Amino acid sequence: MPLETTMEPLFDFLQRSPTPWHAMATMSRRLEQAGFRRLEETAPWQLSPGDKVFVTRNDSSLVAMQLPEDRLTALRMIGAHSDSPGLRLKPNAAQTAHGWLQLGVEVYGGALLAPWYDRDLSIAGRVHLLRDDGQVVSVLIDAERPVAMVPSLAIHLDREANNGRTINPQTQMAPILLQGGDKDDFVMLLKRWVHEQHQLGDITILDFELLLYDVQAPQRVGVNQELIASARLDNLLSCFMGLEALLSSDGRQGAAFVANDHEEVGSASMCGAQGPFLGDVLKRVNEQLGEPGEEGYIRLIQASRMISCDNAHALHPNYPEKHDETHGPTLNGGPVIKVNANQRYATNSGTAALFRDLCREAEVPVQTFATRADMGCGSTIGPITATEIGVPTLDVGVPQWAMHSIRETAGADDVDYLIRALTAFVNRRELI
């Protein structure tokens, strides 16, 4: 996909996906438009060779599968995660202080907190409610405009603000929502947004999962527009690239795209990479289109390969000392193979060799990241997925700056590079 035609759908996806639930809804629509059929986990599955299907769990994780015309013997799997660090509302969120209605928040994942100050913030997520006909339903809401902010304290009142001041998320991160309001006003706001967006009658709010997000739109940045800046590039950028690769492929090979929730908090959930979601789907598919039984399932998994996609730390020109001098990926330098001897990444020499060959075939440059030996290393869904289902896996991603900030930066060319490499992977006939 040419770069200029990639940016518009990417930016549209990022804006339509302020939460993991919105991201799943957006990807589900994209799959249905491409001819994929939605499956329900609670219903029997009737699968045929050549089917294109997808299934969601918790409305925040997804597995999409392209099934071959003949017997299923191997899968080309691409993995990503749908969640991003940020601020999530507590259950009893509304609180008042000195004439202001504020919102109590929890920090989700390893968020950089300082960039959240003085931003135009909106609210989005899912709400479970009781309709006037007695039905309990779940709906997505998005205020879609700035409704809150976390104001900074003036430097005149905190002269040490630029000297490494710590931030207390309990006492110093409560967003301002409304002047002169009370706790009932927040419930009325939720009801108003539900009514405006879903045209429901009288409702009772039963529960919600809501988060704050920056309304600033994604943007090309730089004299030559060589950069892209947006919220949630980690890891919606990988979700976009993985899905585009699946949909851009020739459709002949068995392939799967998985987007797991809860990676930023450890992946231990029913829909996270450490949970049974992917394995449940693969077992059901194998029973119908592969070699049934436990041995057949193991043979399928060992003949398959997984590319776990999660962004990599690019060399920061202001902090070059934070990188190993021979493993500092550059923006627009191509996708990054991520390696860690302690298995924080799942890459081994065999899976790395496969990816290097894919990049050669797709005429894409490739880079390598290994963290400094005197620094800790993050992790991804790669080692977790490899541990849970046993599939040979590698970790790759596009390089980026400001990972876990409210606004992150990546290279525009790298989006096209990784889509091309992943498409070559999905089209690859022989994996071993």
Structure in words:
It is a single chain. The chain is an alpha/beta fold and 432 residues long. The protein has 2 domains: 3-83 and 231-427, 3-Layer(aba) Sandwich (Aminopeptidase); 86-153 and 169-214, Roll (Aminopeptidase i, Domain 2). The protein has 9 helices and 20 strands. The chain has helices at 3-15, 20-33, 183-198, 233-248, 277-289, 294-303, 349-362, 381-389, 412-427, and strands at 37-38, 52-57, 61-66, 76-81, 86-97, 100-108, 121-131, 136-142, 176-179, 203-214, 219-221, 227-230, 255-260, 305-309, 312-313, 336-338, 367-369, 393-397, 399-401, 408-411. The strands form 4 sheets. Strands 1-2-3-13-4-14-18-16-17 form a 9-stranded mixed sheet, sandwiched between helices. Helix 4 (233-248) crosses helix 9 and helix 7 (349-362) packs across helix 9. The chain is globular and about 65 Å long. The mean pLDDT is 96. GO terms for molecular function: aminopeptidase activity; metallopeptidase activity; zinc ion binding. Its cofactor is Zn(2+). InterPro entries: Peptidase_M18, Peptidase_M18_dom2. Belongs to the peptidase M18 family. This is M18 family aminopeptidase.
